[in-house]
Amino acid sequence: MAGEEGETRQKMMEILVALGKVYGAERLIPIRSAQVSGASYKTIGRFGLEWLEGLKARVSVPTVLNPVGMDLSRWREMGITPEFARAQEAVVGAYRNLGVALECTCTPYYLTITRYGDHLAWSESSAVAYANSVIGARTNREGGPSALAAAIVGLTPEYGLHLIPNRKPGLVIRVEGAGEGMEMAHYGALGYRVGELAGSRIPLFRGIRPGREQLKALGAAMAATGAVALFHVDEITPDARIFRFDTAGLEEITIGVRELDDFGREIPVDAVALGCPHCSPAELSRIAALLDGKKVIIPLYIFSARGVIDRHREEVAIIERSGARVYSDTCMVVSPAMEKHRAIMVNSGKAFFYVPNMCGGAVRLGTTDECIRVATGS
Asked: 137: which of 162, 297, 351, 372 lies 20 to 30 Å off by Cα?
């Protein structure tokens, strides 16, 4: 705070102390990792870049970026202009100078940089929901500057979801009619609806048995349409198993699976995009199996973390033999490459929410199987 470790670290500590005062934190606590948003030039622009380039320090904990506006090695084939590419590379260079790892992904949990009980400073909404809910780590939904400040100092204010009493559910969602046939798109539609109902409350779900990919889709959609940074699924998610919450007196809302059918309205699309949040290894394997021996008739974009892609080159090769493209570092929401399409089909409730506003096109939601059928015309 006195500036003995340089002006940048002084400014970052000032941000953290001010944030802690606003939320009544009693102390700063160490974090295990950080994930910083504000990485795409599309979203931060020239002034954000100038701020980043003025910082002179190094991060103190493992830190990764949110997706940027292009695949850093394949941006030309995405149709990115050289002007945008130069600006995006400057943003990435500024983060590199700060010691941030250039793994640009909204799924940092696939990089094994967190585990149950860890305190984090993550900023991407779906990553925060997954870390808190599925892993049982502890992080608030940080803004880009506060996440970067925590990364540089190695500390974050202890308030909000870092405190166990604040992680109790505030709402019960009972799902009727759920079965084994519920796919990621169904959980995305459920999350889309519940996010609107929950706002910033913590929902506890009953009546569903999702796996990890379905949990990811559920949390991502709730974080998009609401401000849900943590959710519980009875007998599934770690906090729900450990604490066995008392839900007496909480509002309970019942949602029937059939109520979600209106998300599947059919409209003509000129592209299909999967990987919002970024595809897991299991998702890449599934997409590869569905595309094996087929050819796409409209553009099919797949987005995943570079580290995941590098470890699954065989699946990626099968996907790309179909004419589809697998891109890293970026996503359908923050890349200007998607703005050329009039209508995009997705399998994600999060993408269903963001594509119209961020890409300017219409959007259709379908299962992964349906998306591949549309992309291949089969």
From this structure: 351
pLDDT tens sequence across 137-195: 999 999 999 999 999 999 999 999 999 999 999 999 999 998 877 899 999 999 999 99
Evaluate whether 259 touches 287 at the Cβ level (below 8 Å): no
235: left (phi over 0), alpha (psi -120 to 50) or beta: left
Whether this prediction's pTM lies above 0.90 is answered by: yes
Biggest CA pair distance of the chain: 65
- List pLDDT tens digits, range 265-313: 889 999 999 999 999 999 999 999 999 999 999 999 999 999 999 999 9
Q: Which CATH number fits domain 168-263: 3.40.190.10, 3.40.710.10, 3.10.100.10, 3.40.1060.10?
A: 3.40.1060.10
7-164: CATH topology is Aconitase; domain 3 (3.30.499)
In sequence order, what are the residues at sequence separation of 6 or more whose Cβ sits closer than 8 angstroms to the Cβ of residue 73?
329
Q: What angle do CA 13, 19, 23 make, to 5 degrees?
A: 145
Cβ atoms within 10 Å, residue 4: 7
- Specify the 3-state DSSP secondary structure of 176: strand
184 within 8 A of 190, measured Cβ to Cβ: no
CA atoms within 13 A on the CB side of 347: 29
| Residues 8/56, Cβ–Cβ less than 8 Å | yes
The CATH H-level superfamily of 265-376 is Aconitase, domain 3 (3.30.499.10)
